[in-house]
Amino acid sequence: MGKVGAPRWRVGVVPQLPPRQTIAAWQPVLTAVGRRSGQCFELVVAGTIPAFEQQLRSGALDFAFLNPYHQVLANQWLGFLPLVRDRKGLEGLLMVRRDSPIRRISELQGAVVAFPSPNSFAASLLPRALLARDGITINPRYVETHSNVYRSVVLGSSKAGGGVNNTLVRERKEVKQQLRVLWRTPVFPAHPFSAARRVPLAVQAKVRAAFLQLASNPEGRTLLETVQMPNPVRADHARDYAPLNRLGLGRFVVLGGDGDFQESCHSLAAIQAALIKGSARTGSGSSVGLFIHTSAG
Fold this sequence. Notes:
alpha/beta; D-Maltodextrin-Binding Protein, domain 2; five-stranded mixed beta sheet; globular
């Protein structure tokens, strides 16, 4: 829990999954990190990746879990520096249905291909750049989350879809069983948990140490597994993410979109009850160590 009177730091999470799943995964992690670091976190859950990007650009976030190319952009915008990332790297995937006749990416010419958003690094930017390099024209369809991409392919709404190893491995078994990987990107450093430049260095150090300490016991590693960081290591912007500038992905980046998000604050107890009961009601109590906001989009 955060100390009484401590600042409330706003934390954003790139919405790879539906908001309810993001809350369920990150709420206990931020509570545990808050206890160890003496900080109070306010989880701001964006409904879409463009809404999350607007939060980053507008200065609404103090900390963020973001994709590698978002880290490049956020460093340029507000000096975000990565604190920790998972030891295992990030691998982009293009997937088709298991029974699809498509065997080569050249066969995607003219096809509808699903992506989470334009700026999802390994799930969208890299595949679209590869396809363009090879002269393959597709009809991109942006469906907001990785979960939606996988289901779009399974249901036949898209001939193929972009995802990443870290979300596919955590997908439901009945979905994974109906997918086949058509193409893989090289491996890159994984999503970092980063801090804006305005966050004091002493606070950054405490938060980094708390993540690393959390991984020192089985219970903590189980918590971190739910947020794709079971084996956190110290991250470094110059070493891990600045080299992405050399990939020439800038012309595929699309900025703008739905940046509005509600400032409706839910107490931790009410959120937990809503997750259990499947309701959307708002609590009126107070929580210590973690507050949650939800974003429309």
